């Protein structure tokens, strides 16, 4: 691939922000903190240029962060990926521990949803009857 072809396939920081939902500030922060798996290339004028692989990695980062992965864990995961083959078991342990935390959060949210659904039913029943008696009574 020629330099011109590579430049045509690379993305500006604004384009990457749009594709990932991350702000330009966050993209710069991720780069400074070592959260990317490869160095971000720069133009001769110093402007960042990202590859499709950079965007794919950032989309993974977005999901890991949205699911509550701490930055320190994400940074460690990125370092492991940058390290290349040979540390897959450690990557698996890190991801599995995070999955277990997400599973616990989902369970807690399902319990919350169940309580809310029950309370919605109580209110709907009272409204259908045209009365408000007992709405604050948890045994109603």
Automatic annotation (TrEMBL):
The HTH merR-type domain covers which part of the protein?
Answer: 10-80
Does the keyword DNA-binding feature in the UniProt annotation? yes
Molecular functions per Gene Ontology: DNA binding; DNA-binding transcription factor activity
Q: Which UniProt keywords apply?
A: DNA-binding
Q: A Pfam family this protein belongs to?
A: MerR_1
Q: What is this protein called?
A: MerR family transcriptional regulator
Q: Which organism is it from?
A: Streptomyces longispororuber
Taxonomic lineage is: Bacteria, Bacillati, Actinomycetota, Actinomycetes, Kitasatosporales
């Amino acid at each position: 691939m020629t330099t011109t072809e590579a430049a045509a396939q690379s993305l500006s920081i604004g384009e990457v922000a749009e594709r990932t939902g991350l702000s330009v500030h966050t993209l710069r922060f991720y780069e400074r903190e070592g959260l990317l798996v490869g160095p971000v290339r720069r133009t001769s004028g110093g402007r960042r240029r990202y590859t499709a692989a950079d965007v794919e990695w950032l989309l993974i980062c977005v999901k890991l962060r949205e699911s509550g992965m701490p930055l320190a864990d994400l940074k460690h995961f990125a370092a492991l990926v940058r390290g290349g083959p040979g540390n897959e078991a450690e990557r698996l342990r890190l991801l599995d521990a995070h999955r277990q935390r997400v599973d616990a959060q989902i369970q807690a949210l399902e319990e919350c949803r169940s309580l809310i659904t029950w309370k919605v039913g109580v209110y709907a029943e009272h409204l259908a009857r045209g009365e408000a008696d007992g709405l604050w009574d948890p045994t109603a």
